[in-house]
From TrEMBL:
Name of the featured protein: Cytochrome P450
Name of a matching Pfam family: p450
Keywords noted in UniProt: Heme, Iron, Metal-binding, Monooxygenase, Oxidoreductase
Gene3D superfamilies xref list: Cytochrome P450 (1.10.630.10)
Entry annotated with the keyword rRNA-binding: no
Protein species of origin: Streptomyces luomodiensis
Annotated family: Belongs to the cytochrome P450 family.
């Protein structure tokens, strides 16, 4: 990344684009909710699939494209409302600082294999990669 001014928007886009691939966040409805012309009654249990929300074409033009300059970026990777992650500010700061340091200290850092060959390690709350081989 040549333009360091994109670090903040890049972090937000990476959070939107590559959110947890888990089955969804369980929620218990405390009131009736209308969704798509149907009423889901109070007391129902639902799954909020954040990945689907973060790829909603009504909110994100070209949602399947990674755009490091995307702004505004109202992703839901840290939840919303009463379920908004308390640690989101720290997580964003850690990601921004890490990216800045990697770009500064290891400017030639690159994947040693094609990104399509990276193997995901999946879990219920987080995921990542089994290995990320790099060259420098």
């Amino acid at each position: 990344m040549d333009d360091r001014s994109l670090i903040r928007t890049a972090v937000e886009e990476l959070l939107r684009f590559d959110v947890n691939r888990g089955p969804g966040m369980p929620r218990y409805l405390t009131e009736d909710v209308e969704l798509g012309g149907e009423v889901i009654p109070k007391g129902s249990r639902t799954l909020s699939v954040i990945d689907a929300a973060n790829r909603d074409e009504r909110m994100f033009p070209d949602p399947d494209e990674l755009d490091l300059s995307r702004s505004p970026n109202r992703h839901l990777s840290f939840g919303a409302g009463s379920h908004y992650c308390l640690g989101q500010a720290l997580a964003r700061t850690e990601l921004q600082v890490t990216l800045e340091i990697l770009l500064e200290r290891l400017p030639g850092l690159a994947l040693a294999i094609p990104s399509a060959e990276l193997v995901r390690r999946e879990g219920l709350l987080t995921d990542g990669f089994e290995q990320v081989p790099v060259v420098w």
